[in-house]
Design a protein that fits this description.
With 607 residues, the protein is mainly alpha-helical. Helices cover 63% and strands 3% of the residues. The protein has 20 helices and five strands.
Length: 607
């Protein structure tokens, strides 16, 4: 096969466009930072929490609309026996955005979190939060690697371009503009990428439908609509629920939520993005249907397209449209891939810097964190690129990680946001039970043996026909609640001694918490909310007047309770207790101390 120079020119032009927009966004970010005197790592992660409606809608939509979404939807419709019935990602991810907006967006943004893992670390401790980072990290890295690998194989087939060259070039461009601009560059390039995807695919569809080898879609409807097999109903339900609920606990989604200007915007942008997901899936569905309606023997494509079903979208563009039209279409394919890779790299790095690196470098300056962020973006991007070039089953690994995020992270997120009685003991047990049940169900894609045979297991095919992933998620959720409450009752009623609370989260709570600010130790304690004043009364006698005054000041300044974006259920709860080391003198010249309220240590004020 000779080099497709027209297609190569299309890719180069598109890459120059994306790189230019990324650099422009980075320069715009720097000018804003200079004017606002804000230069910190959170600006790279969250774009200064200044994402507006237009850009926000595009970048929130790009949470899922990317290479895997567009190509996967077309593949599902094209594949015999699958068809439109099994093309679940469009409506599944759209519902996940709606549910994310209803259940989590407003709450997470109102608390001022920086990453998805912040509520875990604040409730369960730093180490448990870091443990929950593992499935989230693997999911983001494997996803980035998978879409880069898909791009490499696509360009190899369509352009006869080396996989190594195409993957490395694409990764370098995405890493470069993410490195210099952070979420600003990711968000603004998302706008251009989604426009290119929409225009490019819709521009190709009429020409492909008019190709002489394509049968009218109304006639070929049975070929691409799919058929329903009651035997696989459980599998269909399991996959649908995984997309709906497992599509929520991803940092690529929450980095958009947390970058919104207000909690209300975060919620409404999720709803708008859900509509965007459905709208952007229409051309992918049509291209899959066109591929299933085509007599491929009449085209110049010499192989069986059903052996490369994952490439049906670029194959339709390449072989069923005129050369000039394919020029635009191939740019759309590349846009779809890069709109996913950049945000996943940034998401994985953000969690590492904010939730892991800070554990070891609590006194790290903002300048240091910013540089670690940049090195992290390069490192995660390089790792994803290496895996894309060296691991054959990278998509299969990502599928397994997606299952773990659904089974482990979703129930954990639901509990930490809505169930105040949950504690670290329940979190650990839920994590372990969910992991065992999911891995025990096996995974043929990665040659993982079946250790647990759930109901309706097929001994002949080795398939789990029962929705065991959803069952594992529900059991993990119930385990967190039951173990948390059981352990709490056991300690509070004296069934277990205080010293048995080795995780120090129920009764054996440290009396003093040392906060390091500007290299100096300022001893402060703030316990979890205590509506009955049980612990407050216990320590009231040892609180100095300065401590009481400080806590009152912190409560007053932590958050403006009159904010129209806060509903009554979101009104912050005052800390139960604040204790200041009597040796610490509060004067006008005291160093800047971190404010503690809402279990938060983010905002600062001069004491």
């Amino acid at each position: 096969m000779a080099m497709n120079y027209i297609g190569l020119i299309a890719i180069i032009v598109f890459y120059i466009l994306i790189l230019g927009v990324g650099i422009w966004a980075a320069r715009r970010k720097k000018s804003r930072e200079h004017g606002d005197e804000i230069t910190d790592s959170e600006n790279v992660m969250l774009a200064g929490r200044n994402i507006g409606w237009l850009v926000g809608t595009f970048t929130m939509t790009a949470t899922w609309v990317g290479g895997g979404y567009i190509n996967g939807t077309a593949e599902a419709v094209f594949t015999p026996g699958s068809g439109l019935i099994w093309a679940q990602p469009p409506w599944g991810y759209a519902l996940s955005l709606i549910l994310g907006g209803v259940l989590f967006a407003r709450q997470m943004r109102a608390q001022g979190y920086v990453t998805m893992l912040d509520p875990f670390q604040r409730k369960y401790g730093d180490r448990m939060g870091a443990t929950l980072y593992l499935p989230a990290l693997l999911g983001e890295i494997f996803w980035s690697a998978a879409i880069l690998a898909a791009l490499g194989s696509t360009l190899q087939v369509i352009l006869d371009l080396s996989t190594t060259v195409s993957v490395v070039l694409s990764a370098c461009i995405a890493i470069f503009y993410t490195l210099i601009g952070g979420l600003y560059s990711v968000a603004y390039t998302d706008v251009v990428q989604l426009i290119c995807i929409f225009i490019g695919l819709w521009f190709c569809i009429p020409f492909a439908m008019m190709n002489e080898n394509v049968e009218p879609l109304s006639i070929s409807y049975p070929d691409w609509s799919g058929s329903w097999d009651t035997r696989t109903t459980g599998v269909w339900l399991d996959s649908a629920l995984l997309l709906m609920f497992g599509g929520i606990p991803w940092q690529v989604y929450f980095q958009r939520v947390l970058s919104s200007k207000s909690p209300r915007n975060a919620e409404y942008l999720s709803y708008a993005a859900a509509g965007g997901c459905l709208f952007m899936a229409i051309p992918a569905v049509l291209i899959g249907a066109i591929g299933a309606s085509t007599n491929w023997n009449g085209t110049t494509y010499e192989k069986d397209p059903y052996e490369q079903a994952d490439l049906v979208l670029p194959l339709v563009i390449q072989y069923l449209t005129p050369t000039a039209v394919s020029f635009v279409g191939l740019g759309a394919v590349s846009a779809a891939v890069m709109s996913s890779a950049d945000s996943s790299v940034l998401a994985a790095t953000s969690m590492f810097v904010h939730n892991v690196y800070k554990l070891f470098r609590q006194q790290a300056s903002q300048r240091e964190l910013t540089w670690v962020m940049r090195f992290g973006i390069f490192g995660v991007g390089a790792l994803a690129t290496l895996m894309a070039l060296s691991v054959d089953s990278i998509f299969r690994l990502w599928y397994l990680c997606s299952d773990l995020i659904y089974v482990i992270l979703f129930p954990q997120l639901l509990c930490v946001i809505y169930f105040g009685s949950c504690n670290t003991y329940g979190s650990i047990m839920g994590y372990m039970i969910g992991l065992v049940l999911r891995l025990g169900g096996g995974e043929e894609a990665v040659s993982m043996p079946v250790l647990i045979r759930f109901p309706f297991y097929d001994d002949i095919t080795g398939e789990q026909l029962f929705p065991f992933k959803t069952l594992a998620m529900i059991i993990s959720f119930l385990t967190i609640l039951s173990v948390s409450n059981l352990v709490r009752v056991a300690f509070e009623r004296g069934w277990l001694p205080v010293k048995a609370d080795f995780l120090r989260c129920i009764v054996n709570i440290p009396l003093e918490k040392t906060v390091m600010v500007n290299g100096e130790s300022n001893a402060v304690i703030v316990t979890n909310p205590d509506p009955d004043n049980t612990r407050t009364n216990q320590y009231k006698d040892v609180m100095s007047d300065a401590a009481i005054n400080m806590v009152d000041q912190l409560n007053a300044e932590t958050r403006d309770l009159s904010s129209p974006d806060l509903s009554p259920s979101e009104t912050p709860v005052k800390p139960a207790l604040g204790y200041m080391n009597p040796n610490f003198q509060t004067t006008e010249k005291s160093p800047s101390m971190t404010k503690i309220g809402l279990n938060s240590m983010e905002e600062e004020s001069k004491l």
